[in-house]
Amino acid sequence: MTHAVALLLYIGSLILWFRSLLSGGRGRGPGIAFGLAAAGVAAHVVALARFTAEYGQLPLNGLAPSLSTVALIIGIGLVATLGLGEGRRVGIVLVPVVILLEVVAVSLGIEPATELLDFQGAWFVFHVTLAFAGLGGLAVAFASGLLYLVQLHELTAKRMGRLFQFTPPLATLDRLGRTGLVAGFITFTLALALGWLWTVSFRQSFDQSNPKVVWAIMCWLIFVVAFGVRVGGGVKERRSALASVVGFSLIVVTYLGLRMVSSQGGFFL
Fold first, then answer.
1. What is the sign, positive or negative, of the torsion defined by CA atoms of 101, 105, 110, 116?
2. Which end of the chain has less Cβ packing within 10 Å, N or C?
3. Residue 261: is its pLDDT beyond 60?
């Protein structure tokens, strides 16, 4: 029931974001939309807290609970933009992502996973939480990068319509994207380090052919590329925005492909 309340608040927020877009971002629309999204995040926290209390485990294992947790972390990333003024308008990109993840999670049934992982305990909790936080940071960079490219295109085409008026300034979007990348890179790197230390300590081996390991390394390399393209001349902010958009999309596509074709179990997501 609480998940349904969170979804309704997210959907209401999205409707207001689009109404605000049609009005060029004028009035109180963006603020109300952001407030509804924040209320959705609060309801989402309550829903996952109830899951933890009822089943005695954190919602980090199993596809549906993990997807819901990732959705929550992305929502928290949106709430964290509170001090950026117009930067909060990345919600028009982030909220649909949150809704999609939460709809899939609710459709699958947010229940405890029946499959036991050998990677458990505090190691597992920190590893997965940090990994999800890293993906949340990249999602924020994706949203700001997408709006950066849209705003840059509007400026290049000399169109000053509603889309231009709604979209935050390029400097704000670049700062937000850079912050998301830095936070995401640090947390995701720590997640990989914890996973590697656990594997070496308890298995005395590192299975580089495991699809999960390959996917995780690919995610880390995408962070590195997004930072690397900021070096050199030209419009480095545009290159970074494009790398964030393409990189996040690639992560999603390859993950879906792995879930469909991999015969190995033990996915925490």
1. negative
2. N
3. yes
Asked if the structure places residue 266 within a domain, the reply is no
Kindly tell me if the per-residue pLDDT of 253 is higher than 90. Answer: no
Distances (CA, A) of 57 to 48, 50, 112, 114, 268: 10, 10, 8, 12, 13
* SS3 of residue 23 by DSSP: coil
How far, rounded to the nearest angstrom, does the alpha carbon of residue 67 sit from its chain's CA centroid?
10
Q: How many domains does the chain have?
A: 1
- List alpha helices for 80-169, DSSP H: 91-108, 121-156, 162-166
> What single DSSP character describes residue 84?
G
For residue 86, the enclosing domain spans 2-261
| Residue 52 near residue 106 (C-beta atoms within 8 A) | no
Residue whose token pair is 């590697």: 196
Q: Given CA atoms 134, 175, 71, 2 in this order, what sign does their dihedral have?
A: positive
CA dist., res. 229 & res. 248, Å (int): 15
In a domain, 267, yes or no: no
pLDDT digits (tens, 9 = 90+) for 116-136: 555 566 777 888 889 989 999
* φ and ψ at residue 27, rounded to 5 degrees: 80, -160
In degrees rounded to 5, what are phi and psi of residue 202? -110, -20
Identify whether the C-beta of residue 183 lies closer than 8 Å to the C-beta of residue 81: no
Using alpha carbons, list the distances in angstroms from residue 257 to 220, 239, 254. Answer: 18, 26, 5
pLDDT, tens digit (0-9, with 9 covering 90-100), for 179-231: 999 999 999 999 988 888 877 666 655 555 567 778 888 999 999 998 888 77
Residue pLDDT, tens place only, 221-240: 999 998 888 776 667 889 99
